[in-house]
Amino acid sequence: MGKRFLVVTEEWAGSGHRMAAEALVEELCASTGVDSARLVGGLETASPALRELSRFFYLGMLRLAPPLWQRIYEREQLWSTSLQKPLAWWLSRKLTRELLKKEQPDVVIATHAYCLSALARAKREMDAPFHLVSIPTDFHVNHFWVHPQIDTYVVAHEQLGEVLKRDFQVHADKIQVHGIPVRPAFRVAGERDKPTWRAALGLSPEMFTVLVSGGEGGYGGIAEVLQELVRVQEPLQIIVVTGKNAKLKRQLDDWQQKTPDLRHHLLIRGYESQMWQWISAADVYISKPGGITCAEALALKTPLLLYKPLPGQERRNSAFLRHNQAAAVANTPMEIRETLNRWRIRLEGQKEIEKIEQVRRPEAARQTAEYLLGL
């Protein structure tokens, strides 16, 4: 009889957590020795009302009071205590009754920290405890991801493993450095070069290509980024992906129709389910620094230009990647143009950005699946 896996995530705080969970489930389902591998939303299962409240609070804070959200995020130890005590007690009872007793998993993996402490409490109280895995889906680790009942931590980089050991006293035997799981399609897409991808997508194979995206929600000041890109003197091939933000796509379509004399090749797309094609085709990817977005671009060796990181995890991701020289950060539209001009000279000269190799982990999902199957 094979192993039973349960992957618990949340999607209301951005799609990256779900994408990492889907990547892992896809690899597990393709492996032998797996009886089941199910993906579930933690709050969606335990408390749909709390899910909606959390989503409203999170999105509202980011939209209306980013500095306040940054201060809240920096007090992570205080908030993680609330998740580890009263809220965890209540959620653990709900998850045990609604999910764990029905599924009887051998391994439970969390790609979002909200229900992690509740799962840890449930593990301690169940008759047949499961192996609990924490997978932080960013390039940093905070208190939310750590609990004494966690058996394994899968982190994005060796530096994060050192943080777990130094700051949280996690034993080295519990730490696996596999990377942030990305879907198998991203691993495979990296085997083709950029001109080949551009030709396959009907783009000019030789033009310097810039991709702009703000995730599924089309966030990150895409319109002002585009306004700056069109001021670049040398012709560019610009692809803008607006995600599920239909209002933004309409605005950009209208602007393009009213600006017929662009020197650049401009393509505006809506939601793209196969983003690996467009990231593979790009010489530079301008985006918001969500953990999974960065991991996908790194897997495809596409240089990242991170624009206006949001408070919290996005600023931490940006700081990590900039420190490791694996991405650049721009806080104004002018900085985008200046960075692009510098990079264009380097990239057109066929110079590799060697630092990307030191942080990219395209095999993360497969290696994690293999490790879990071998427990």
TrEMBL record:
GO MF, one annotated term: hexosyltransferase activity
Keyword Glycoprotein recorded: no
Gene source species: Brevibacillus centrosporus
Domain Glycosyl transferase family 28 C-terminal: 224-312
Gene Ontology biological process: glycolipid biosynthetic process
Protein name from the UniProt record: Processive 1,2-diacylglycerol beta-glucosyltransferase
Domain Diacylglycerol glucosyltransferase N-terminal: 17-182
Pfam families for the chain: Glyco_tran_28_C (PF04101), MGDG_synth (PF06925)
Subcellular localization(s) per the UniProt record: Membrane
InterPro entries with a match to the protein in the record: Diacylglyc_glucosyltr_N (IPR009695), Glyco_trans_28_C (IPR007235), Glycosyltransf_28_UgtP (IPR050519)
GO CC list: membrane
Location, primary (coarse class): membrane
TM helices/strands, residue ranges: none
Family according to the record: Belongs to the glycosyltransferase 28 family.
Origin: domain of life: Bacteria
Alphabetical list of SUPFAM superfamilies matching this protein: UDP-Glycosyltransferase/glycogen phosphorylase (SSF53756)
Keywords for the protein's UniProt record, in alphabetical order: Glycosyltransferase, Transferase
